[in-house]
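The passage that follows is intended for readers who have already worked through the single-chain material. We present the inputs for a multi-component assembly, then the predicted structure in tokenized form, and finally a short commentary. You are encouraged to pause after the input and sketch how you expect the pieces to fit together before reading on.
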Amino acid sequence: MEHQENLTAYVAAFVAELVNTGVRDVVISPGSRSTPIAMVMAEHPDLRVHIHIDERSAAFFALGIAKSLRKPVAVLCTSGTAAANYYPAIIEAYYSRVPLIVLTADRPHELRDAGAPQAIDQIHLFGKHVKWFVEMAPPEKTDEMIRYARSVCARAAAIALRSPSGPVHLNFPFREPLVPNIGKEDLFDLNVRPDGYVSVETGKLALSEEKYEELAGILSRSDKGIIVCGPLDDEFFAENITKLASALNFPILADPLSQLRSGKHSKDFIIDAYDTFLRNSDCKKALKPDIIIRFGAMPVSKALSNFIKENIDIPQFVIDGGAGWRDPAAAAYMIHCNETEFCKSIAKYVEKKNQHPFLDKWLEINDLTKTKLSKINETEELSEGKLIYQLSDLIPDGATLFVGNSMPIRDLDTFFHVTDKSIRIMANRGANGIDGIISTAIGAASVLQPLYLIVGDLTFFHDLNGLLAVKLYNINIKILLVNNNGGGIFSFLPQASEPKNFELLFGTPIDLNFEHAVRMYNGKFDKITSWDQFKSSFLKNMDNCGLSVMEISTARDRNVLEHRELWNYVSREISNKLNGVS
Amino acid sequence: MEHQENLTAYVAAFVAELVNTGVRDVVISPGSRSTPIAMVMAEHPDLRVHIHIDERSAAFFALGIAKSLRKPVAVLCTSGTAAANYYPAIIEAYYSRVPLIVLTADRPHELRDAGAPQAIDQIHLFGKHVKWFVEMAPPEKTDEMIRYARSVCARAAAIALRSPSGPVHLNFPFREPLVPNIGKEDLFDLNVRPDGYVSVETGKLALSEEKYEELAGILSRSDKGIIVCGPLDDEFFAENITKLASALNFPILADPLSQLRSGKHSKDFIIDAYDTFLRNSDCKKALKPDIIIRFGAMPVSKALSNFIKENIDIPQFVIDGGAGWRDPAAAAYMIHCNETEFCKSIAKYVEKKNQHPFLDKWLEINDLTKTKLSKINETEELSEGKLIYQLSDLIPDGATLFVGNSMPIRDLDTFFHVTDKSIRIMANRGANGIDGIISTAIGAASVLQPLYLIVGDLTFFHDLNGLLAVKLYNINIKILLVNNNGGGIFSFLPQASEPKNFELLFGTPIDLNFEHAVRMYNGKFDKITSWDQFKSSFLKNMDNCGLSVMEISTARDRNVLEHRELWNYVSREISNKLNGVS
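Having made your guess, compare it with the prediction:
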């Protein structure tokens, strides 16, 4: 009984403290060794327990919730390879700066590295991809060890959250018997400091006023500055970067994940077609900046990355509140400072100029590009590019749009332009994998509604298991499945110039009729064959509950041709304009 | 061009050497960064290239091939989380001692930890779960670097294979452009030592003759010795352990994965019902040994593990040619020596006794237990226990039986008894996960035919994606899907005594109609409703190509009752026998 009392008190204190730190969601995968924490969590009135059988999907599901809430979510699994299945989501969380609290149960010390069943070496299991690892002490209910459990818990949540946010990993050794005493009425009563054992206040990185003033001076003296905003998720950023841009008369090159292309803030300075016009060398010459300020992660656009790299002769500043080093071009001066505070502080010292020819040139080319790009809407065939236009028309204000990697995020970058609707755009751009996208989107959909997901067929296949959550929890999600039967992005790469083995190694058609899978998860499946049908299907599904999948079949070879012809056409038009040919 | 020449020569030398080491199978997941190796591998006439989209399934598929062939298989993927998906299979390979050569492509040094897309920290990505990690040098075609590439490759294969076998990880930094020059006619021509740059001869662990003689003396003096054989995969072991047992008059407690319950060797000393009768304390008293010799990994049976732990007062020897420490009871003297050589060498020094009452008692109780256990065959309802009897009757000689973890392997332990058929029994018992079972079995089925897989519904669900390989490569596999709609094993554990939240946390019904998934992969699906139908379905499917799934639906609560009643009944019968009640 003493064992059970130790176990129960220690775990209950930990779980109570977890709730104190603000955690409300936990994703549990069934297992035996994790029984003490799972059973105690299920007792807590303020925790939402989500069950997911496949730990890989479970961790991505948790990631989706954490991204949406911008606060830590816990995952729990048993010992052995269960935990190893978390690895892809943990790495994604690490690089995309999403707070996760990873709890793994482990065999006690005497059963480790001794051939005991389901025992693997879980110490530092996730290597350098967690911000903090703790091998927890075996459960005890002394005051000291209760304080320890609560204190580690509070620290874990604070570390996960503080900038740059990321995953932490706590490993719990549990001895049998594993069943705690959940019958206790005062299970979660905490003797001391019931509202939180340790509080952690973490400031934001800020520069001195002198430094802000100095930087504002440098920026003010530039006539040809540009702002580049990559993926960034700070709800106060849009308003403040817009004000700074307005003060400086700098255009803002806004990645779709910067959250700047949609929303209620001013879009007057937003450049959203650069991925197309920065492919044109005349254009790159005409728009050459004398200074670049960057925020957020590296943008999706390769044309923009190249542009940044080609301009290493000018000063480039990277502002990063997470004190990272997001600069593959090795070109930047690093400014480790909270992004929103930076905008506010710099704006104070900037004097607005009346003339802004450089900005105007950017805006003019951006407008021209968008006008010409919209030619794709004339196509009657199903097209991956036109789909983004259609989607951006139809998607309701306030919706969340989750975007798969490889082609969908690139097409979004090219074809999704500014809108006054508020559309939160999400993707997994930490490591850019095609894994776990379904689960991350479903996790997000459990918080944000309505939610639309656009993915290719390989991405859809990779995380089919993720759909289980929709069925178990009646989560609403609308999936636009762009099925080009294989890896569409490779057709855009140099690999495509070697036809021998191309389909084997890169095209990789899998010829699956996904309708079967969608039916298994009780979903609705619409095979789209025309734009009219797409529109009516989209509108019909708008108020659906559960899973709706609209499959748009396209052809990889036609798709690459369509993109290239369009880019070439727009490029010619831009060159004509720049060279004065009407 | 110099870049492409460096890349091509370096990678081609590596791949040519890989084939020299005996590798014939490589499992590739599509990606861009891995292009140089993938394209060169596809050119090699002696390599079988298998494509698998989901890297988690890909690595388990490779594991299945490697287990079956007992030689290294290579896996290849691109940079980023793709590689992290390998982690569960790598851990399983590490603990189950299966040779894998893990090849990951990576960004070059200048794009690491600098925000470049799809770049994660791949150095020591798999931590302590690989035997060797090498960060490869960037490609160069100098003689020295070609020798380096070949030498590392040869070492990697040798390290993966040498006892204890396991995974190794080589990480390749590749710069763009990534397409090699595969048009070269002499792509795989090696200037020096064309049949293998480095040869590695690794001996087996062997004791001195004096030590063998001393140990033989100790064993010979025992009247009540037993041999325990856990999971072990050495094709010469069965014959030699049987001879040793016969010399010593020791019973052999043979785990189903010891490969001793079936085959052409003598079964006279095999005890195969211990998992049932060692639950009985009268029996454990009557059968108390004075010495234990163990081979292989820890057996599946918890009753046997307990029996080992309860006998720490007697000498226990663990023979391990992989020099591990497989002894969670902390009870054993370790003998690090090749198992087959040990049997041969000891047998030479043993003098056979004519009296063997202790052995006879074991055999008698074993026989009684099996007679009584077979009562389960009287049940007309579908039953997980009876299924094993039926399967063992119907399975053709020469087949391979792959067994899922949790309940199937335990039921096999209880109900699969000696047979003269040669049935190779396989399972993933390194870390005992429910992940990757489908893919491992399909990998095995690509080598060994016919192959039967028996799994529960959660295991089937966890690796549904693995079924893609069956469709892409027309691999034949027959799956017995025991669908009790959730985690059947938990009903046997103390967790089941707390009904509140039991179904939520442990029962976890997922209510999927798997027929949809089977159809998606072009499989045949039979829903079994009676034993007659099971038999006819089994016989009808015997010569099927591709995927055949027979679903046997059972009830978790009825199943646990059936097992308990049977064990109690047999236990009473044994006690009656031991106490002289007829």
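Commentary: The first strand of chain B starts at residue 25 and ends at 28. The first helix of chain B runs from residue 2 to 20. How closely did your sketch match?
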